């Protein structure tokens, strides 16, 4: 889709001029350059958005895998157990990185990044961890049938589950504490 505008401009100019060369500073050259710049910008923005959404997609895929064999809606303590299991997913890697490090050496970049990610997720869990609403049976069925695309997540309902068991409705996409 992003390269749609450039192809339209190229097609229009080719129809108008044929295979003749364009002048360096002609209007048609300027149109091609601006269409190309626009497409580059759209591609950069789209890839940045995908990179930003990737952690949420992975989170929802993980919760989808937890629900595959479950037939009924979850209770809050069950959801909290799933969240705590999800938060501990990098514990083994952190332990191996720490054990492989020589005494007195600073932590590796990977070690630091994992610790920062865990601290951020623990903070989010304290105030309310963003997850699909697993208490609703219809939402659970929709999650099981989810195809893995960001755009199809709008059909799901989400909630924020805090460490002390409080559930609040949330919106999609996640914004702050909504």
TrEMBL record:
Residues 21-30 have a biased composition (Basic and acidic residues). InterPro entries: Tma16 (IPR021346), Tma16_sf (IPR038356). Residues 1-49 are annotated as: Disordered. Signal peptide: none annotated. Coiled coil: none annotated. One of its GO terms (cellular component) is nucleus. Residues 8-20 have a biased composition (Basic residues). PANTHER family: TRANSLATION MACHINERY-ASSOCIATED PROTEIN 16. Belongs to the TMA16 family. This is Translation machinery-associated protein 16.
